[in-house]
Amino acid sequence: PPSYPVKVRVSYQKLLKCFVLNELHHRPPKAQKKKHLFRSLAATKFFQSTELDWAEAGLQVCKQGYNMLNLLIHRKNLNYLHLDYNFNLKPVKTLTTKERKKSRFGNAFHLCREILRLTKLVVDANIQFRLGNVDAFQLADGLQYIFSHVGQLTGMYRYKYRLMRQIRMCKDLKHLIYYRFNTGPVGKGPGCGFWAPMWRVWLFFLRGIVPLLERWLGNLLARQFEGRHSKGVAKTVTKQRVESHFDLELRAAVMHDLIDAMP
């Protein structure tokens, strides 16, 4: 549509392009046997089932995630790093170079932290709604804001840069929705509680990131429990080592002879 402003037009084209690409690569779904995760889990003796409210489940996720990250931090004895409940990792004091070097974490830890942070934001919005501090419209606005500004609210893209695609897609959706919504008598309002498309983008992102995180966290935990593999490897004998050994042996032999010669 030529009457649209440029940024909305560009957003439109991008989203359309994405949609068309997906449609082109879409194969008709294969018929598969229905597998029920919960039933197969319930069949084993490790799992029990319980009824939980969604908000409570969200709080549990945040709490357990917080404990998990804290365990990793304390596993490395980094008591000068503090992880607050919004999953910001902050040093307590000015760190020495050695401490800074020790307190570096890999992408697995940080990506987990940022995903938990996004979860925390969403859960917090819902909790505020439950407490009656905001009404449903404000909740919807807040969710829409969170999902369309993931790049500002969290630093997720630092650890997996491919995420920029999702962020841009949400931005395009935001342009479209706002252009259609903030027209006529509404004007530029505080926001628009239309969060489902953005939520969809992030849901698919989380579904896709799961295997990657599984691999990363698997490696991380294996390293935490077993130590690095390079520890067990014997030093290779280089020319320099051979010669220095020879010198040492020679010295030892000379000393030995001298001591023998002493009456």
Automatic annotation (TrEMBL):
Annotated organism of origin: Nymphaea colorata
Question: For the PROCN domain, which residue ranges apply?
Answer: 3-263
The protein's matches in PANTHER family, at most eight in alphabetical order, are given as: PRE-MRNA SPLICING FACTOR PRP8 (PTHR11140), PRE-MRNA-PROCESSING-SPLICING FACTOR 8 (PTHR11140:SF0)
Q: What is this protein called?
A: PROCN domain-containing protein
Q: Which GO terms describe its biological process?
A: spliceosomal tri-snRNP complex assembly
Any one GO MF term held by the record is:
U2 snRNA binding
Q: Which branch of life, at top level?
A: Eukaryota
Q: Name one GO cellular component term.
A: U5 snRNP
InterPro entries per record: PROCN (IPR012592), PRP8 (IPR027652)
